[in-house]
Input
Amino acid sequence: MSLSLFVQVLVNALTIGSIYVLMVLGLDIILRGTKILNFAHGQLYMLGAYVMFLFFQALHWNFLLSLALTGLALGLAGMLIYLSVFATLARRFTPTTTFSYRLLLSAMASVGLMMILQQGTLLCFGTQERGIQPPFPQIIDSFGVRVSLMRLVIILTSLVICVLLYLLMNKTSLGRLMRAVSYDPEAVTLQGVNTFWVFVFCFALGSALAGLAGGIIAPAFSVTPVMGQDVIFLSLLVLLVGGIGSYRGTIAGGLLIGLLLSFGFQFLGGIAELFVFMLVIVILIFRPGGLLGEAAG
Amino acid sequence: MKLPDSLALVKAHRYKWIAIAIVLIALTALPLLIENNYIKHLLIMACVGTILGMTFSMLFSAGLITLGAAAFYAVGAYSSTILVMNAGLSFWAAIPLTLIITAVLALGFGAVFVRNAGVAFVIITLIFVQVVVLAVAQVEFLGGWGGIIGIPRPDPIGKVNFATKTDYYYLILAMLLLTIVVFNALYSSRIGRAWRAIKLSPNLAGTLGINPYRYRLLAFVVGSTTASLAGCFYAHYSQSITPGAFGGWLSIYVQLYAVLGGLEFYILGPAIGALVMTFVPEYLRIVKEWEPIITGVLLLIVILFFPGGILGTIRSPQALNMSNLQSLLKWLKVLLPHNKNG
Output
């Protein structure tokens, strides 16, 4: 394997990995904050790509501005979804409702949403692929290694978003509230906090992250209505490998799966996905809670 | 105060047996009344769906949510096909062998999966379905993505040669009734009570001397084995199987049967849910591209406004969630002008 090919596959792996990191951070924030396993997350990612298409390709706005607006738009969409569906559902639960019942009903509600969003997009926009003109088409060529600038921008932007998220979660009072709610919502309520709006914010933030992931990836790949379905399985896998409830684990898991898939496709071809799934099951034998998480009872 | 209650209970018990007898006779007579082969096909698929839905309910009764019903359904279908077509066994000998193979596999994989309860279990089972589908598709011996065609019919018993849908209907009905009897026995035994205790609180059950891990593993093995029984039937009924038929969507539908029928009803719930979900989409076929949207909206409506599914709402209509309905209307009022502007 030449150095050039190695670097290209590595950059590819980091690109895919950083998208998974953003997706799964969103999933994890929603899961920890509101106890919803959001199967519609892949569809939010797809919507993010479509919104990016609208702002960047159709309206010719600046790349970063379009991306920020995409995040904002999906955050608003997430807020509306939470207020209309999940808040209504949560009102039915009492403290005696078992955890499995809550989990099942909210997961099923998100499956319903997934079907509606998926087929709705298909009906509105048709099945054709839409390409976005890459804002950074240059190719960096140094020491015989050729790397697309767009991919580097994707990795860099994801990194910036992760740092911003870290600052939000650890350095602001809102982040502290979100972390507190994920441990014990009742105790937070007893401190005089209106947890409802914290839940809403958690869901909106998770949706915004899914939208950002879709918006970042859109210029590198094409926008299709089925892109959400493909990404959700692997995102759930990453969530599992990294460990539910560990943001560091999520980042490690996302990059690990990205690397394994990219190098796997290079060396093994189509069987790589199966190989990765098998590896995950082996990991779970030794670490039932994922790489950095703890096994739940 | 006790006397009238217990009298009512005795009466209800008697009516229960009469109701069961009527349903049994109706189910047995049904294919004689129906001429249309397509409706018979739908009935058969509803029975298959009921068996799968019941395996979901069994795991849910132990507090586990599985999205992996399709995995062992596929394992059953493929192993029975291989045993009949390559090993030359008869269908009736292949069934018990398939059940044993699946039980061993379920024990092995379950020992790893069941250690993670809650969210992780949901994801693992969902991924396991993908693993099975991808693994089967990779193996040339199992037909790859193209699948296997020309699977023989079950060997004839006497005059019954499985040339008509009616024969298949009676076969799946027998399998369904057998499953119901076994499941009912399990639910009303110490095992079933232990499952319900674990669902309520695994830690509390643990302090009472119930090992949550072992009981959950038992539920997983029994559920998976039953799913493979349905798989055996499906392979020899449709006479062709492809890996794509066992994808993630199937598991989600199985889950839907149980939720729609009523989660509190471990046996009747999946049956009603499977019947509704098999027949209603068929009549929605006029608007095929709208079908997933209608299914999705129906699902949301049931979850949000009919707690306990269809049966739960019939049993206690006052539990109908009116406050939710009102709050939704309130939100719609807030949202409507917003939607018009945007």
